[in-house]
Design brief:
Shape: globular
Number of strands: 6
Mean pLDDT: 84
Strand content: 5-15%
Distance between the termini: 17 Å
Order of helices and strands: HHHEEHHEEHHHHHEHHEH
Oligomer: single chain
Helix content: 40-55%
Strand order of the largest sheet: 3-4-2-5-1-6
């Protein structure tokens, strides 16, 4: 930013929001005809990119994909253990692997699988094992990244004492392998499905949130029936579909294990004789190197 010159910025002035790319969401109590007229006057104030350019723009960006490719990034780190040395009392731990780029039918299967594994609050498998049984962390979770522009990731995260960092990673990977091998129960499937369905109304709790979610859906190229289809997809999803998706994406040997904390304590053998080095070869990495991979 500091190196940018006025001459480089001048050509961009007024080009950021052409009316053909603009999506406006409105929700609340109003007269529809009057609102449409007001919106037409509002949109007319934005620059017109021309019919030919707009047609090419739409053809180049199906399904809500960006008109231009996203900025280049270094890509995901290969599977392994990565350590950022910081003088903290606790270790922040993240495990991640490549997920899906939406729209992809596996996304919702992974969403349900993650709810069972670590996303379902105190009833998830990770919470029961890591928090309740082992007392390693107050909070532990998993989630599935939602990204329409590039491939997202599947992730697990927690914080624990530096001295128990290796133990915590061992437990997460152990539970990941166990769920992949044994599958899930009907009760877990129903609990996860019910939790996701009950969270849906919160997206439309206010006029502002309703306008925002529908505007975003339009920008992403979603169907007007997206949320009805989402509900039907969850209601008809089978246990076998959820288990299959989990096994293909939450693969323990494919995880990138990132740990931020005091290297000396994390690399020393704990009470069980284990350290981060026993999980896999440890690569020291700096915050600056991580930033380049955003």
């Amino acid at each position: 930013i500091a190196a940018a010159a006025p001459g480089q910025l001048a050509p961009l002035a007024g080009s950021g929001f052409p009316r053909q790319r603009l999506v406006v969401g409105v929700a609340g109590r109003f007269d529809r005809a009057q609102m449409l007229a007001a919106l037409q006057r509002f949109v007319a104030r934005f620059p017109d990119m021309g019919a030919d350019t707009a047609a090419a723009d739409r053809a180049a960006a199906p399904q809500g994909l960006p008109v231009a490719d996203p900025p280049a990034f270094a890509g995901p780190l290969p599977p392994g253990v990565y350590l950022v040395d910081k003088p903290f009392a606790q270790a922040s731990i993240r495990l991640a692997a490549p997920g899906v780029q939406r729209p992809d039918p596996d996304y919702y299967r992974l969403l349900v699988a993650s709810e069972v594994f670590g996303g379902g609050g105190f009833t998830s498998r990770l919470a029961l094992r890591v928090r309740s049984d082992e007392g390693l962390a107050y909070s532990v979770s998993s989630d599935v990244e939602s990204d329409y522009h590039r491939r997202g990731s599947v992730r697990t995260g927690l914080q624990t004492k530096a001295e128990t960092g290796a133990f915590a990673v061992d437990i997460v990977l152990e539970e990941m392998r166990r769920m992949a091998t044994e599958g899930i129960t009907d009760a877990e499937l129903e609990r996860a499905r019910d939790a996701l369905l009950k969270s849906l109304p919160a997206l439309f709790a206010t006029s502002a949130s309703t306008a925002r979610i529908f505007a975003q859906s339009e920008a992403w190229g979603r169907s007007p029936e997206h949320f009805r289809n989402y509900r039907r997809t969850l209601e008809t999803m089978t246990r076998a579909e959820v288990e299959d998706a989990f096994r293909r994406y939450f693969v323990a040997d494919s995880m990138r294990v990132l740990v931020v904390g005091p290297a000396e304590a994390l690399l020393a053998s704990d009470a069980r004789g284990r350290s981060l080095s026993d999980i896999g070869p440890v690569t020291r990495i700096t915050e600056e190197e991580l930033d380049k991979r955003e």
